[in-house]
Amino acid sequence: FRVKSENREAIWNTEEVPEGSEFDDAWDPREQPEYEILFKQQVGTEDVFFGMTGKDPSTACCEDIVIKIKLPETKYSDITLDIQDKVLDLRTPKKKLLLHLPYPVNSKDGRARFLSEEEILEVTLRVLRKFDFINFA
């Protein structure tokens, strides 16, 4: 069994390394915060009452991913957030979250807001979808 490689001195191919593994740090003692992933879609009356566009309640028809992260005893200025196409990396002095996202997202066009009363960071990301028979607009 032999694997073809461009570089003969490489010990593995780049396809063998899981996406987002460069963010993983098993030795970091910070605990992972509680989080919740929600899916959001835009629907109109043609979807709700008539079913004209073919959208259904599944995640295949959702346009946005909303991630709610509980960060007790955290200030907004202490949060570091890095979004890649398939990875969300959140760091605070007490918490660390490395989340592999279920769908590729537009990392340049997202929103984050910190709800200080509830101590929750809410991150909204636009899902990048290929056009198909469900997602054609």
UniProtKB/TrEMBL annotation:
InterPro entries in UniProt: DNAAF6, PIH1D1/2/3_CS-like
GO function terms (MF aspect): dynein intermediate chain binding; protein-folding chaperone binding
GO cellular component, one term: cytoplasm
PANTHER family given in the database record: DYNEIN AXONEMAL ASSEMBLY FACTOR 6, TWISTER
Annotated ranges, domain PIH1D1/2/3 CS-like: 32-128
Origin organism lineage: Eukaryota, Metazoa, Chordata, Craniata, Vertebrata
Similarity comment: Belongs to the PIH1 family.
Gene that this sequence comes from: Pih1d3
Stretches that traverse the bilayer: none
Coiled-coil residue spans: none
Protein name: PIHD3 protein
First and last residue of the signal peptide: none
Organism: Climacteris rufus (rufous treecreeper)
Organism domain of life: Eukaryota
Biological processes, Gene Ontology terms: axonemal dynein complex assembly; flagellated sperm motility
